[in-house]
Amino acid sequence: MATVTRLRPRTVAAGLVLLLVSVLAALLLGAGELGWQRVLGEIVAQVTGGTSPLSDREAAIIWQLRLPRVLVAALVGAALASAGAAFQGVFRNPLADPYLLGAAAGAGMAATLVVVFAPDVTGWVIGPLPLAAFAGALAGVGLSWLLGRSAGGTGTATLLLAGVAVAAFLTAVQTFAQQLNTDSLKQVYTWMLGGLNVSGWQEVWLALPYTALAGVVLCLCARLLDVLTLGDAEAAALGVRPGRVRLVVLLAASLATAAAVAVSGLIGFVGIVVPHLVRLLAGASYRVIVPMSLIGGATFLVVADHIARTALPGELPLGVVTAFTGAPFFLLVLRTSKGRLT
């Protein structure tokens, strides 16, 4: 079978249809006993200007609670999946994920410091915890990059080792901060499991610009990621500067990861599962994988979040749901990748 190297319109259309169906299902069905027919009537009324079957309070549940949460899930899923695809392309490793260079450790440390040391702050346009997580994720990746440069370059092996060192150090700082105030353990642990239960329009506007910017940059760099798979020497012979490409791609992917972490906490496996599903279903070229990971990641997390909030009477942490899906898939990738992990 011929390798697919170009994004086909029918592939994009199929992905968008699945995303639309998942978003609509998440809006129609929920813990509130509104009835999907009445919710559908409310949506139709908003589109056509007709009479809604819902009361004002019930309509607010749809437009002020469900819709922003669904949109945040889509943005976070798109950000993590596209970043995961980018990291796999840069490092030429199918097990690379968006947290590889210390984004998770940096975000976790910064969020913990806010929970432990920051006083209760009211009146902020954006809460201090998401701001700290965003800055911490970028700082973790930045430290890894600087450490890699100081150690002798921007090669993938050097960056990986730098990421391991930075993540270990930041995790140690986080653990020390937690031990200074053990009362904060539950709040920090809940945040680290990931979730969208407090998502609103504020979180949508926080994540949207960074996710959109990073998505555009990664899609524009997708062809260069295909060139990097040939190796640095071959890429340089074709006029591509591998170090510069890695810097741009990792910066964009880290920006998307930071935006996702800021509004959702740490949600694992999305950046591994979705790119591999796209690779299996749509093609192995990054000109296909990156844009379809944006769509597929949004769909995956919308569905996962819907399961998290409806599967049990009490809401499950979203990170637990993605782990149930991702851990077996991770093992499958590990088994089928055998000698291709280096």
Describe what this molecule looks like in 3D.
GO terms for molecular function: transmembrane transporter activity. InterPro entries: ABC_BtuC-like, ABC_transptr_permease_BtuC. It is a multi-pass membrane protein. It holds the Pfam family FecCD. It comes from Amycolatopsis suaedae. The chain is mostly helical and 342 residues long. It has a single domain, classed as ABC transporter involved in vitamin B12 uptake, BtuC, CATH 1.10.3470. Helices cover 74% and strands 0% of the residues. It has helices spanning 9-28, 36-48, 56-91, 103-117, 128-150, 156-180, 185-193, 201-220, 222-228, 232-237, 242-264, 270-281, 286-310, 318-337. Helix 3 packs antiparallel against helix 13 and helix 4 runs parallel beside helix 6. The two termini are 26 Å apart. The relative contact order is 0.17.
Please describe the topology of this protein.
Blueprint: H1 9-28, H2 36-48, H3 56-91, H4 103-117, H5 128-150, H6 156-180, H7 185-193, H8 201-220, H9 222-228, H10 232-237, H11 242-264, H12 270-281, H13 286-310, H14 318-337
Helix pairs in contact: 1-13, 3-8, 3-11, 3-12, 3-13, 4-5, 4-6, 4-7, 5-6, 5-11, 8-11, 9-13, 12-13, 12-14, 13-14
Distance between the termini: 26 Å
Q: Label the structural class.
A: mainly alpha
Order of helices and strands: HHHHHHHHHHHHHH
Regions with little confidence, pLDDT below 50 for 5+ residues:
none
The percentage helix is: over 70%
- Strand percentage: under 5%
What count of helical segments does DSSP give? 14
Total domain count: 1
**Integer-rounded radius of gyration:** 21 Å
The overall average pLDDT, rounded, is 84
State the shape.
Answer: globular
Under the CATH scheme, the architecture is Orthogonal Bundle
Q: In the CATH scheme, what's the topology name?
A: ABC transporter involved in vitamin B12 uptake, BtuC
